[in-house]
Request: fold
Amino acid sequence: MAFYFDNASTTPVDPRVVERMNGCLSAEGTFGNPASTTHGFGWFASEEVEWARATVAEVIDADPREIVWTSGATEADNLAIRGVVDALCSERGRNRIVTLASEHKAVLDTCAHLTGCEVIILRPRSDGLIDLDALAEVLTDQTLLVSVMLVNNETGVVQPIQEIAKMAHQAGALMHSDLAQAVGKLEVSMRALDLDLASLSAHKTHGPKGVGALYVRRSSDVRVAEQQHGGGHERGMRSGTLPTHQLVGMAEAYRLAQQDFAAEYARVDQLRTRVVDAVLGLGDIQINGRKTVPHILNLTVQGVDAEPLMAAMPEIGLSTGSACNSATLEPSHVLQSMGLTRADGLSSVRMSFGRTTTLEAVDHLIHSFTEAVQSLRSRS
Ligand SMILES: *Cc1c(COP(=O)(O)O)cnc(C)c1O
Reply:
């Protein structure tokens, strides 16, 4: 038996999503090119694509015309940041981009590759939350864009996006947020959050990998320059034949996440509480981050390295808070940005829960984790 606790890295596709996707692939299904306008094969595929667009828009409280399909949140982050810089930097005479050191690499590395921009990377506080006073200081008439994620993928910390967006807008800047981890874990509304741009992904929410979207607010102030050239699909913002099965899969996954939201949130919250109560009883274990969603639990286990800890329970699928950079193991940049020492960073693990996480699996996790921690501690 194996037990999966790495839902923040990806989730299994819901069988209801698989079924929906299967209907869009073979000769009996809607396999046509949605851009073909000369026959029914194309029209039916186009109808599916527009159903998917309307469904995703409805789940995030947006207009269907505000959805631009992409290959995932990585591409959406790239398109948002590079697209805004290309379209608006010189026109507005603003070249400052503000982001947080705990953002996903898709945001941080995109910012690192911008030319002609001044990128300001703020450090979060030790609890993982943004320092709003520090933000206020760097919002000037030079600020073009602010990019801060809603739910952090390593700690689950929820940033005060409404307040950040309000401050960005008061300074005349645009607001982008990476929502890859937010959909299904929180109720997200583009209107309530007051976002100009938002990145979405399907596979963190029991949909397929390789598909996502960029929300682009319909407003003359918000413009995004295309980053790949071609047939001019997606109103010129993102060329490429639309993958009907992927888009329908994403939409069905989002629809299910919304449909089951309240019950699923409460269920995951109970599972998390069960884990927290059990593991904190072991002593010398800290939870990293405050104001988190229940689905992600990041722990520092004092005196125990994450690598041998995970090796001691091979049937449990966990993740370190660390990224393996070729030969050297580096502590997670997110935990480092919160001020954790290198040693504490390397003693941290992330447990993340999803729709397929059962109470039985959680009890296995607690049992294996307790034994592994006690045994490794008694050896040192
Ligand atoms: C997974 C993830 C991404 C990357 O999404 P893809 O769809 O895999 O490209 C970006 N940002 C966050 C916060 C994520 O968790």
Remarks:
- The CA atoms of residues 68 and 235 lie 8 Å apart.
- The chain has two domains: 3-10+261-379, 15-258.
- Residues 72-74, 104, 106, 149, 153, 178, 180-181, 201, 203-204, 212 surround pyridoxal-5'-phosphate (CB under 6 Å).
